[in-house]
Amino acid sequence: MGVLTSPRSSTRFRDLPKDQQIGGYPRPGQLSGNVDELELDSEGRCVILEFTAFVLLGVYSPANRDQSRNDFRLGFFDALDVRIRNLAMMGKRVILTGDLNVIRSEKDSTNVAEGLHKEGLSLDDWISMPSRRIFNHLIYEGMVLGNRDEGREVPILWDLCRLFHPEREGMNTCWDTKRNTRPANNGSRIDYVLCSNELKTWFTHANIQEGLMGSDHCPVYAVMATTVMVDGRSVALQDLMNPPGMFSDGNRVRDWSHKDTLSLSAKLIPEFDRRRSIRDMLFKRPERIASALQQNDLANEKGDNVPEVSKDPEASDKLIEADIKLPPIIPSAADIAGRLGKRTKSTSNGDGLKAKPVKPAPGQKTLKGFFKPLAVASEAASAQTKRTQDADADGSQSSAMSSIATLSNMANLAESADNVKVFDPIEAKESWSKLLSKRVPPRCEHDEPCISLLTKKPGVNCGMLSGAMGGMLNTLE
């Protein structure tokens, strides 16, 4: 709809100058008006990019799950149809792709007639449902019953998968995972790659990848030719897909520059601006490094001389690495406090002000700490803390010296705790052996060994232990 704004701007896309907008935004009176324009854009269901060759729309249409979303779903399809038609009227080529959540015909779903029979509906009623009717108006060879709607007299887009596989059945792209209908290919085709009539000859193949697992959908793809026809002449596709002057006859002439950055590039998003490497996203940059790099950027803009170290990205990364504190080999007092599950109690200094408490380090430092018994260390640490607090109350020693003593003793406790035996491997092996070994049949009241009974009935329980029978009783039978 174009009512949102670009990063770092308060101007809506549709209000930008003509040379900075994609265009084709719905005009007053073109939409039904049942849904607000801002509401249609608020869910981020459509991303539109303009290349030199065409305008690409990536769409995730609302699903038809309940009646509460009917108005929004129809409003979305209505706005999508109007936007594509407006772009076509401007002379722009259009490619529409994504999960459109609509089935175009009976051939594109499994057992449609059976499902309609259960619901008491006819095929004409199903094909004329509002969202399906709008979609079939938009595509070539779409089934539209009766007269075409006003403003939708001419189709705009080709269904590429159906164009290359006109009679193929079972070309489903989505299946119900709860009922596990994918092995039987009981699903529907709701994912598409559609293109305007001018782009029809640009594609050499289109298909689905039904064997690629990992989702309830499967990928859909279309292959473009390396050389295409534009206005009666053969042009390399790379010349059309890239900014002017970057490629000539399919050969690169120049590299990318900041002037070629797309309007939706991550560099224009404040969260990713001025980042030097992926490491910046994982670690908090020290203040001195951040300020130095910021001054470096300002100096670059002014054309001033910049030190060589700040120009080198690897050098700045090394400085960042130097500021990242590695966990100590010997656990600190904060680490011990974190293991004990308690916060260290703050002590007061000579002025009566409370000192800043030591924060426990996040997580354990070694795997051994997970198995290590902390009862001894806990009791000793509690006793030492109590003695320190008593000493502070009596004024026998300063709070600063007691804090140092506490930290030193807790570090010694941590070092001694490392010498505690974690577990006995022989004992552990015997425990696992007892757990995983074959169960020994119990003895009956006559002190006779029972006989194990195994399930012989075919099925998932075949061969499993079903019970035991006393030896004396089994002998009498």
UniProtKB/TrEMBL annotation:
<feature type="site" description="Important for catalytic activity">
    <location>
        <position position="191"/>
    </location>
</feature>
<dbReference type="GO" id="GO:0003677">
    <property type="term" value="F:DNA binding"/>
</dbReference>
<feature type="active site" description="Proton acceptor">
    <location>
        <position position="217"/>
    </location>
</feature>
<dbReference type="InterPro" id="IPR036691">
    <property type="entry name" value="Endo/exonu/phosph_ase_sf"/>
</dbReference>
<dbReference type="InterPro" id="IPR004808">
    <property type="entry name" value="AP_endonuc_1"/>
</dbReference>
<feature type="binding site">
    <location>
        <position position="99"/>
    </location>
    <ligand>
        <name>Mg(2+)</name>
    </ligand>
</feature>
<feature type="region of interest" description="Disordered">
    <location>
        <begin position="293"/>
        <end position="315"/>
    </location>
</feature>
<dbReference type="Pfam" id="PF03372">
    <property type="entry name" value="Exo_endo_phos"/>
</dbReference>
<keyword id="KW-0460">Magnesium</keyword>
<comment type="similarity">
    <text>Belongs to the DNA repair enzymes AP/ExoA family.</text>
</comment>
<dbReference type="GO" id="GO:0046872">
    <property type="term" value="F:metal ion binding"/>
</dbReference>
<dbReference type="GO" id="GO:0006284">
    <property type="term" value="P:base-excision repair"/>
</dbReference>
<dbReference type="GO" id="GO:0008311">
    <property type="term" value="F:double-stranded DNA 3'-5' DNA exonuclease activity"/>
</dbReference>
<keyword id="KW-0479">Metal-binding</keyword>
<feature type="binding site">
    <location>
        <position position="216"/>
    </location>
    <ligand>
        <name>Mg(2+)</name>
    </ligand>
</feature>
<feature type="region of interest" description="Disordered">
    <location>
        <begin position="1"/>
        <end position="30"/>
    </location>
</feature>
<dbReference type="GO" id="GO:0003906">
    <property type="term" value="F:DNA-(apurinic or apyrimidinic site) endonuclease activity"/>
</dbReference>
<feature type="compositionally biased region" description="Polar residues">
    <location>
        <begin position="1"/>
        <end position="10"/>
    </location>
</feature>
<dbReference type="GO" id="GO:0005634">
    <property type="term" value="C:nucleus"/>
</dbReference>
<feature type="domain" description="Endonuclease/exonuclease/phosphatase">
    <location>
        <begin position="47"/>
        <end position="217"/>
    </location>
</feature>
<feature type="active site">
    <location>
        <position position="60"/>
    </location>
</feature>
<feature type="binding site">
    <location>
        <position position="101"/>
    </location>
    <ligand>
        <name>Mg(2+)</name>
    </ligand>
</feature>
<feature type="compositionally biased region" description="Basic and acidic residues">
    <location>
        <begin position="299"/>
        <end position="315"/>
    </location>
</feature>
<dbReference type="GO" id="GO:0008081">
    <property type="term" value="F:phosphoric diester hydrolase activity"/>
</dbReference>
<feature type="binding site">
    <location>
        <position position="217"/>
    </location>
    <ligand>
        <name>Mg(2+)</name>
    </ligand>
</feature>
<protein>
    <recommendedName>
        <fullName>Endonuclease/exonuclease/phosphatase domain-containing protein</fullName>
    </recommendedName>
</protein>
<feature type="active site" description="Proton donor/acceptor">
    <location>
        <position position="99"/>
    </location>
</feature>
<dbReference type="InterPro" id="IPR020848">
    <property type="entry name" value="AP_endonuclease_F1_CS"/>
</dbReference>
<feature type="site" description="Interaction with DNA substrate">
    <location>
        <position position="217"/>
    </location>
</feature>
<keyword id="KW-0378">Hydrolase</keyword>
<keyword id="KW-0464">Manganese</keyword>
<dbReference type="InterPro" id="IPR005135">
    <property type="entry name" value="Endo/exonuclease/phosphatase"/>
</dbReference>
<feature type="region of interest" description="Disordered">
    <location>
        <begin position="342"/>
        <end position="364"/>
    </location>
</feature>
<feature type="site" description="Transition state stabilizer">
    <location>
        <position position="101"/>
    </location>
</feature>
